[in-house]
Amino acid sequence: MINVLVVDDELPAVEELAFLLGRDGRIGKILRATSGSEALRALSTGTVDAVFLDIHMPAVSGLDIARAISTSSHPPAVVFVTADEEHALAAFELAAVDYLLKPVRAERLARSVGRISELREGGSAPEMITVDQGGTTRMIRRDDVTYVQAQGDYARLHTADASYLIRVPLADLEQQWADAGFIRTHRSYLVALKHVTSMKLAADGPRVTVAGAGLPISRRHLPTVREKLQANRIRPQA
Q1: N or C end: fewer C-beta atoms under 10 angstroms in the chain?
Q2: How many C-beta atoms lie closer than 10 Å to residue 76's C-beta?
Q3: 170-182: per-residue pLDDT in tens?
């Protein structure tokens, strides 16, 4: 069970997040704090496995708390919860496990809890990617990328929530991300094996389904795709 501390200077926000966390069977004790100083006192008990932190708080901010946590020999996992993405880069520089935007959706929160569980079971910290969107710099997890689409000298990263254009050719990502489970299926596509749900040998050519999107498989890449999918126990559909 994961013992958590929920920190926000607005009590309704604390109670709402605590309610959502309480519905998750992986969560144990839920502590609450409505100020930075109260949060630091709760953390001094040493019984907290993860902290869900609001960033914008008076006096002692969420970033201040995260910096204090980072000096601990056994720091709890940190998930930032905020209304904007202004501090996303700083958050991940502080080794945050996740960055949730308000209002928090139950399914998105469950993913954060899953990531905390992975770390507690000895998993490694996620590979983060810096992207720009609408003038805002964001950090996204590579394991959230379902597939990548070539767009000239750029590549578009697709996730369940959005897509992001980065100035890296698809061929470079193919080499750099091969060990992370990404394979080339077509001159225009690189897919994450763990997000593949099916492969179909259709009349108009073979296709692979990734996070609900049907993507083409070229003749050149078909043998490798078959081999990789069979190794991962995904069988082609007739």
Answers
A1: C
A2: 20
A3: 999 999 999 999 9
d(CA 43, CA 66): 11
What residues pair up with 92 in beta bridges, in sequence order?
none
- pLDDT one-digit tens code per residue, 55-83: 989 989 899 999 998 888 888 999 999 88
Of residues 101, 119, 127, 96, the one with CA closest to residue 26: 119
3-state SS class at 59:
coil
The string of pLDDT tens digits covering residues 128-163 is 888 877 777 777 889 899 999 999 999 999 998 889
What radius of gyration, in Å, describes the C-alpha atoms of the chain? 20
Per-residue pLDDT, averaged over 200-218, amounts to 89
**Contact between 112 and 100 (Cβ < 8 Å):** yes
Which pair of tokens denotes residue 105? Answer: 């959706």
Tell me if residue 198 falls in helix, strand or coil.
Answer: strand
* 146: Cβ contacts below 8 Å, ≥ 6 apart: 158, 159, 160, 191, 192, 195, 210, 211, 213
Q: Please enumerate in sequence order all residues whose Cβ is within 8 A of that of 223, keeping only pairs 6 or more positions apart, or say none.
A: none
The Cα 41–Cα 32 span in angstroms is 11
| Torsion, CA 212, CA 218, CA 219, CA 222, rounded to 10 | -40
Contact assessment for residue 7 and residue 15, using Cβ atoms and an 8 Å cutoff: no
Under 8 Å between Cβ of 102 and 84: no
Q: How far is CA 55 from CA 35, 90, 207, in A?
A: 11, 11, 43
Q: Which helix (H) or strand (E) holds 157?
A: strand 154-158
Q: Output the pLDDT for position 84.
A: 77
